[in-house]
Amino acid sequence: MSFEELRSPLRFLQSTLSDFRPPDWLQQYQCWWEKEGQDISDLTDRAGTPWLRMFDLSGTRVDEILYSPDYWRMLRHGYQTGLIWRVSEEKAVFPAGLLPAALGIYVTSFYDPGLACPYTVSLSTFVPLSKYGDAELQERFLPRLLQKDEAVWQGATWMTEIKGGSDLGATVETIARPAGNQWLLTGDKYFASNAGAELAVVAARPEGAARNVRGLALYLVPRFRQNGQLNYTIRRLKDKIATRSVPTGEIELRDSEAWLLGRAEHGIYLILEVLNVSRVANSIGSVALAQRAMTDAVSFAQQRMVFGKPLIEQPLMRRQIEDCLRQLQAASSLAWKAVELLNQVWQEKPPYSDHYYLFRLVAHLAKYWTAEVAVQTAKWAMEVHGGLGTLHEYRAERWLREAMILAIWEGPAHRQILDGLEVMERKHVHRLLFQSLSGAVAASALQRMEAKVEQHLVLPLEEKEARAEALFSELAAFTADALLQPKE
After folding, report:
1. Can you give the pLDDT at residue 241?
2. Tell me: the pLDDT tens digits for 17-41?
3. β-strand partners of 182
4. What is the 3-state secondary structure (H, E, C) of the chain?
5. Is 0.85 topped by the overall pTM?
6. How far is residue 25's CA from residue 30's CA, in Å, rounded to a whole number?
7. Maximum separation of any 2 CA atoms in the chain, in Å
8. pLDDT category, 180, cuts 50, 70, 90?
9. Domains of the chain by start residue, with CATH
10. Which long-range contacts (CB under 8 A, 24 or more apart) does 342-346 make?
């Protein structure tokens, strides 16, 4: 792979995805980022956390999030380009609806990983609404998410509360009460990405439901009530490490009008569907960030003179670059395999097929592995820059900040490991995974890896969990490397 291919997200995808030809709109989107978007993104990052205006001059609660006009132009450009609306219109160009969003999120993440979050959670709002919303809900809300102008609505996915997000069954305290054909939600969401969105899907517990994951349901919550007043309020915005391109806040729901999506008893499945769409987006965003961090590091190494010659010509640096490139390519193969499987199963509803559970396993592997690759690549890129890499005036430190949130968002490493372990144990989908990899690696290697998994799954419960990370890490790396190999 040439350095020029590494510098362009689309050329990198062409070199790693078979038969990929970027459509005109995607090429134009990348060109916009090169000409305008990157400068806006840099300014937004340096300007810091957005402000919240809670009241207008008349004293009316408005909860307006204050960014510069250029930020809103940057954000809306992606929506107008079609990162969401093309999902429902590009069937003649792509084999499945979610691929345009995945490609757009990849390009966005190369230039601004944080900005990919609003597009991701808008997609993760569109999916359950389009699958589980009744005809009236879809007619009322779907066109707003799919608009092609500045009036487009944004989505959000609010699950996490103050006690954490990994154990939703124990930590979700938001209560839903029936009110005619609607529900009224009361509770607080502590880590609410894309605060201020016009529409959100929210995890809540129907009044009287069990205090476990089976008692959760998924609800659609608009920003405004039917009488025009605010339907939820923003307590504050977070001043956080990592990305400044998406407002994260604390959301207060007080008898907030909502609509149940799907059947209440299927709520946890719908919640996991939402999370897994975001996890796949997180995976491709992680790869894009790793590509960008590596691109900047290589560019710096070409210019930096050390002991009389460019840093890139030093043997150790050359070897590190080669190793990083191979890891990047393997991570890309795993992330895009997760996209491929998601495209095949995203319209399934409970009860799911075995193929859906195969997707789940690959999504957990991809989210876990690509986030780790992003963090390690960004750290290495900072080290290549030396002391300059720690300075806010350059981008190397930004990529490390951005990478840190990718490792946590939608479940940190331990959550992916335990969920992946669970789906292997209950559904034995690792066997389907190994079948799909046959022909890419030697049969003996597949047999050894499968034997390790099978031996691990019969360990005593505590030992099985305690030793799970080493196995999961090896399985993720094995799968990524296998997918990188050309099929026989």
Report:
1. 82
2. 888 999 999 999 999 999 999 999 9
3. 179
4. CCHHHHHCHHHHHHHHCCCCCCCHHHHHHHHHHHHHHHHHHHHHHHHCCCEEEEECCCCCEEEEEECCHHHHHHHHHHHHHCCCHHHHCCCCCCCCCCHHHHHHHHHHHHHCHHHHHHHHHHHHHHHHHHHHCCHHHHHHHHHHHCCCCCCCCCEEEECCECCECCCHHHHCCCEEEEECCEEEEEEEEEEEECCCCCEEEEEEEECCCCCCHHHCEEEEEECECCCCCECCEEEEECCCCCCCCCCEEEEEEEEEEEEEECCHHHHHHHHHHHHHHHHHHHHHHHHHHHHHHHHHHHHHHHHCEECCEEHHHCHHHHHHHHHHHHHHHHHHHHHHHHHHHHHHHCCCCCCCCHHHHHHHHHHHHHHHHHHHHHHHHHHHHHHHHHHHHHCCCCCHHHHHHHHHHHCCCCCCHHHHHHHHHHHHHHHCHHHHHHHHHECCECHHHHHHHHHHHHHHHCCCHHHHHHCHHHHHHHHHHHHHHHHHCCCC
5. yes
6. 9
7. 77
8. very high
9. 3-145 (1.10.540.10), 155-263 (2.40.110.20), 268-484 (1.20.140.10)
10. 342/98, 342/276, 342/277, 342/280, 343/95, 343/96, 343/97, 343/98, 343/99, 344/96, 346/96, 346/97, 346/98, 346/127, 346/273, 346/277
